[in-house]
Each structure stands twice: as C-alpha cells, then as structure tokens.
C-alpha cells in the first residue's frame, strides 16, 4: 500500500490508510442519507489517490452503505462499475475484495426484486450471470438457489420456489452462503407464508435465542415472528418479541419492512395507540422511495391500522401521516391503500402476475387476532365509547314490563351488582305508564343510589312513595339513605341530627310490629355508616365508642334472624367489617384482621363475593403488616377471584400491583411480572396511567430485569420514566427506575446511554442524607463511561465515587475506584506513571485499612482479599505498561516489578487458606509466565507444580478438585510445564 497517511483540514483524504480509517468511521455512523453522502465523498477522494484498490474499496463501502439504507436503488451503479473493473483487471482486487464482489452479487440479484422498474428478464439474466461466475470461482450453488427461490417466491411461482428452496437447503454451505441467521430468517418466512407457523418458529428459534446473529438479526426474525405468534396464541412470546425487536429496529433506517411488522402487530393486538406512536417516530417512512418493496409493506400496514381505528369509531381522529398536511384516520386509510395498491400493481406489471397485489390486499384485510394484548408500556385506550341506542318504548300491555319489574325486584332483593341498571330499564320501559307507588319508589330509590351524593332529593321522593305504598319502615330507610349521602357530601353533623330522629321512629315502629327487621336494620346501618364517616374525619379517637355501639346495635338486631335473607346477611358482614375498621383505628391490628376475615367470609357465604373484595384487600394490607405474606397473598388472590367481572379497572390495577409486590417478594419474578403487566393495563384503562400505571411499569421493569429480559425491561422502564415524579411516586422510585434502566442498557451494550441514566439517578441521590446509593451510582456511571470509550469522563466519575466511598468509610469502594482509574490512566498517552501512582495508592489504602480495622473475622478476610487482588492487578498493570519499542533492560526491570507485585498477591492469598485458593493459583500462573518471560524456567516450573499440587497434584496425590476452574488451572499449569521442559531440552 502506498500513499501518505493523513487527511487535510477539509476532511479530504490524503492517503490510503486515512481513506480506510475514514471508511471505517463512516461505517459506524447511523444508517441514512448523511452516511451515504459521506461514502460518495470518500469515493471521490479515493479516485484522486490513483490506487485501483483504493477505488475498489471505496466502491464496496458505498455499495454497502446504500444497501443498509433507504436508498437501496443506488447500489446498482457502484456494483456495475466494480464488475467492469473485475472483468478488465482482476489482479487489482485483493482476496477480501474478490470475496466481497462475489458476495454482493446476491444483493444485486435479490435487490432487483425490490425495484419494479427493473425488468424480470434482467433479473433472470443476473441470476444466470451469478450462477456462471460462482461456478467459475468454485463456489457452491447454495447462494444461487437461494436467490432463485427469492425470485420465484416474489412473482408467485410456487412450484419453482419450492424446487429452488429444496435445492438451496440441499447444497453445501460455503463462504458465499448467507449467514446462518439470515438463512434461517428467510426459510422461516417462507414456511409462515405457506401457513406453517409452527415450522417457521422452529426454524427461527436459534436466532431468537441468540445462537446466530448478524447486523440485522435477530432484528428481522423478531419482527417476522409477531403475526405467527399471535395466530398461534403464544401471546407472551409475541409481546416479548415486539418489545425486544422494536428496540432493535427503531434507529435502523433500512429496516422499514421490519418496522411495518411491528405496526401491524399493534393493529392486530388491540394496541392501535402504540401503532400511531410508531408511525409518528418515522415520518420519512411515508415518503422514502429508494426501496419500493418496503414502502409497499409500510403503506399496507398503515392502511390496516387506519381501517382498524375507523372501525373503532375514530375515523376523524388526527393521525401522523406524510408531511405537508394534516390527516385523519379515514383520509390516511384511503391514501395508504391507494399507494399500496399502486405500488403492488407496478410490481405485478413487471412480474406478469397478480401475486403481489393479492398479498397486499390480504394483508390490508387482516382482522385483529386478540382484542387487546397488554404490553406493559404506556398506552392510551383508542376505542370509542359504545354508542347509546335509544330504548324502544314498551307499553304496559306488552308482557315485557311485568317481567322487567320481577327481574329488577329479584336483583335488588339479592343485592346483585346490576340491580340499579335493571330498575333503570324498568323506568325506560314504563314511560307513559302509570305504575303503582311501590314500583315507582324502587325506581326512584335505585336511581338515587346511582347518583351518590347528588341523590338526596330522589331518596326523599322514594320515601314519599314508600309511605304512599303503605311501607313506613322502608320510607324511613330511604330517608336514612338520604342522610347518609349528605354525610358523604361532608354534612356529617346535619346527617347525624336527621338520622337520630329516624332511628327513634323506626325502633318505635319495630316495637309494635309496624315494620320488619330488614327496614329497621337499614335505618340502623345508615346511622352506623354516618358515625363511621365521623370516625374517618375525626383526628381523635374519642368518637370511636359511639360508632362501635351503633355497629353492635345492628348486629344485635340482625344476628340470628338472617335466615335466607341476603340483605340481612350482608348487614352482618358489613357490621363486622366496620368493627374491623374501628379495631384498626384503635391499633388492634390482629383483631382487625380477624374481623375483616369474618366479614369477607360472610359476604361470600351469602352469595355476594364481590362485596368481599374491598375487605380482602384491606385484610391483605394488615396481614402484610403482621408479617404474614402468605396470608396477604391468599387474601389478594381471593379478592381478584371474588371481584370477577364486577371489579372496576382501578380496583383490578390496585389488586394486581399489590399481588405483584407480594409474589415478587417470594422470588416468583415471572408471575410477579404478569401481575404488574396487568396492573399497568388496568391503570391505563382507568385513566390512571400517569399515576398508578407508572408505578406498575416501574415494578414490571424491575421484575423483567431480574429475569434477565434486558430489552423488554428497558422498553418498559423508558416508558415509565416520563410519568414518574418525586411528588407523586417519591424520588426513590425515580432513582430506582433510572438505576434499573442503566443496568439494562449496560447489558445491551448501550454504554453511553447507561452512563446518562446512572448519572441522572446519582444527581437525585446526591441530595439524600445517606450517600451509599449516590456513591454506587457514580461508580456504575464511571464503568459505563469507560465502556463507552470516554476515559476522561470515566476518570472524573470514578474520582467522584472514590471521594464518596472515602467519606462513607467504604474501603472496598475506594480501592476499586482507584484501581479502575489506574487502568483508565494506562490507556491514555503517557499515562503509565499516573497509572502506577493510582495503583500504589490503592495498595496503601488497603494496608492503612488493615492497620486500623478492628473488624470481625469475615470483614477482615474480605479486606485481606482486596489487598491480594490489588497486588495482582498492580502486577498485571505493570506488565501491560511496557512500551513496544522499549529497550530490553527497561522491559526486564518493569517485568521484575510486575513479578514482585504478583508474588505479594500470592503471599496474601495464601494467608487466607482454601477460601482464596483459586485466586492464589491464578496469581501463581501469572507469576510463572512472568518468570518465563524473564528467562527463569526453573521458577516457572515451580509455580506450575504448585498449582498442580494445590488441586490434588498431577500424580493424583491428595483430594483432587474437578470443577471447571480446577480443570482450567491444571491445563494451563501443564502447558507451562511442557513449554519450559521444551526450552530446557
């Protein structure tokens, strides 16, 4: 290679090495027009160098960035030029570029499928050209048959596609075959298109499990798997693959088709709102025209999603669409459908078939596969409220009205949840009909119940009608209900005054048998409820005795007289629940728990399990307080079961979140995640997404993280953060979410982003009285900054952490921060001296701490071990600090220093006995290799034998260990012995 190694100030390339560096840097940039434009500039610079290989490499780079972008149509020009150069002067191509030229033949042949302006005959010609050139180069026909299959599948020639598919799999894999991941993706896609979803997922499994990966896998497989998983009812996997997969394709411009799969998944799983969010993230996808086939995929799923919104009554909703105008769902549906069908028609005209149009129409006509699949991320329910259909008037002569009244009476007598609606139906059916006073009383009474605090006047009207119907007791009960709703509105004293008179009246009636137990109990219960309201509002406990007496009066009246009367059984259960609340208020938690248990059981035995839910939830909290998590869990599960379909969304959310916490505390992270997911879903349904929903997402992210599901956890935690606030959820929840997210991003290799999250969390924790979390987060942020290639920032963060560890008296944290800074310093230019000083400081801190500590044995041993590891790392650091161009004497001197530190480590580890055996033998081997480098084979052999003896010896003496570490140590020691003996001979 010739040329000057450098670049001028205007980014002009002044040498081949500089060109290669510039191309490597450009390859790391995000996909898109900017990267493509730079590749074009670099080609122009390469042509100035007058080096054929430079032009070849620049053309290859340009072709590659075009392929991984939305401008795929530009690939063909550089490839044609490369092929011409090959045909004219193949000797200008080195081995790598020769391989690359043949490799990209596949891109050209299948890439033509994506461009409807390229004739089918041209594709067949290129397919033949590819086969001919591969044969000449000695390559397998596997890639050729794969390309032939792609052409046949695209045009709808199923017979040819199946033959080519079989030939593809039968041919030998060689270095021209696509990577395993890409091949399995395409093979699985074909099986799914042929209706064989199980087979497809079987083929995709190694890619989904991470066995095979590449630049675009598992990204594409995750996307392709979504609809098959939904069709098979494997909803948990579909959800996980969406969260994992969307995270991978979100920033990759070239993956519009995979992105479309995620939009389609949203449309088919009841996540229309998220589908709209996805469209809003990628406005350019509506108009990018460099790859017509992926544009067809995208416009088809846009039409599908918009049609779904229109079906839900949201056709007039504003939606994201092509720039330049505003769009409603109905308008965008028509636009996207027209675009998709026009694109499909262009392909079909080129292909001479109708296959592409048929597939596009089928895709746009797909129906939802599940009503709603909760994803755990933020969501807004898109479904419109059901339209209210005006009731059809019913006359008294029609048989429907008596039946409606009978059914409503049955439901109200047995306290069924829909009794209010039943009486409302009676009212609608009886418009213009004169009902008897009793029925009119029931209608007014139940309408008042539905209105809550606004129902006072209707309760009074019901009371008048009950009196007119000859039921003075029920009239008093209705007035007592009116008093109770006044108490609910804050007029507690006024309500007590009213109910006191009603109490006297009903007892007088009851004493002369002018009313029954049911009506009397109703008045007494309303009085007890009002007194309980006063308890709730009072700051002192002086009001407790009067409330308790009122509750016990209800029990004295009703107990033993319930018979088959559901209403009376409910009075007993409710009274026990009131006594439980009073016991809890008085601080007798055990009595409260017992009484709530009786109350819940009473409702269940009365056939009213939905009334038990509130008290089972209260019981769960008390049992948790009493240290009975198993009982708390039983109560929560019972509440969910007993609430059944009658539970409101907010109640479901609260119970699920509590259950997630309890189950998670038992280490059942998978089940806990399911409950947290449901909690987030129901919180969103209840309109509490920013409050309870954010907390549920916070918990869900933590449970997913504990299962190692990093990508899913990151997606959920990122979704929770915008709604989490110190004011609503506490700054602890905000810090923990940032912390968990940082851990996820670190595991995913997104180190710069991980550092940002950890630093944000550290900034909040900086203000806390206890600084351990602040120190830990600063330390973790430093690790991420170092991994992100930001050594200056990393050193600053480690220094911050080190200062905090020192203030906290945490020697281990301080030492580890110093060691980390030493390694960072070594990477810097002329940083060896600073690195030595930092590592020496770490040793000194260890020794000072050991000299001062009075710690217990375990803490002492841990500190001794820290000293051993610091000496060992010091030795390693010195060995790696030797410049390549150093003189022999200076190299030897540094290696001697390094060996001295490692020997110190051996001595320290040996003092800890068997607890530090593996650490000692690792140091022994390091010392042996250093001795070998210093030409002291006898010392190296002695170190190797010491390792063999430590694990039972090569001769089998002693009790040999046979775990993985022991086997690896023995193998390395034997290797060292063999090499030293070869040198001796």
Keywords:
1% strand; mainly alpha
Textual characterization of the structure:
The strands form 2 sheets. This protein has a two-stranded antiparallel sheet with strand order 1-2. Strands 3-4 form a two-stranded antiparallel sheet. It is mainly alpha-helical. The chain contains 46 helices and 4 strands. α37 packs antiparallel against α38 (772-787). Mean pLDDT is 91; it is low at 1-10, 383-399 and 954-958.
Short description:
The protein is mostly helical and 985 residues long. Helix content is 72%, strand content 1%.
What is the helix tally? 46
Query: Radius of gyration over alpha carbons?
Result: 38 Å
Class per helix and strand makeup? mainly alpha
Biggest β-sheet strands, sense, barrel: 2 strands, antiparallel
* Average residue pLDDT: 91
| Helix content bin | over 70%
Terminal residue distance: 42 Å
Low-confidence stretches: 1-10, 383-399, 954-958
The fraction of residues in strands falls at under 5%
Kindly report the spatial arrangement of strands forming the biggest sheet. 1-2
Q: Estimate the global geometry from the Cα principal axes.
A: flat
Number of strands: 4
Which secondary structure elements does this structure contain, and how are they paired or packed?
Blueprint: E1 3-7, E2 13-15, H1 16-27, H2 33-48, H3 52-67, H4 76-88, H5 95-111, H6 120-137, H7 142-155, H8 158-170, H9 180-193, H10 197-208, H11 219-224, H12 226-231, H13 235-249, H14 256-268, H15 272-281, H16 292-311, E3 318-319, E4 327-328, H17 329-351, H18 355-364, H19 400-413, H20 419-429, H21 437-451, H22 456-468, H23 472-488, H24 492-511, H25 517-537, H26 544-558, H27 566-585, H28 589-605, H29 609-625, H30 629-643, H31 649-665, H32 669-685, H33 689-706, H34 710-720, H35 726-729, H36 731-747, H37 751-765, H38 772-787, H39 791-808, H40 811-827, H41 832-852, H42 857-880, H43 888-911, H44 917-933, H45 937-950, H46 964-984
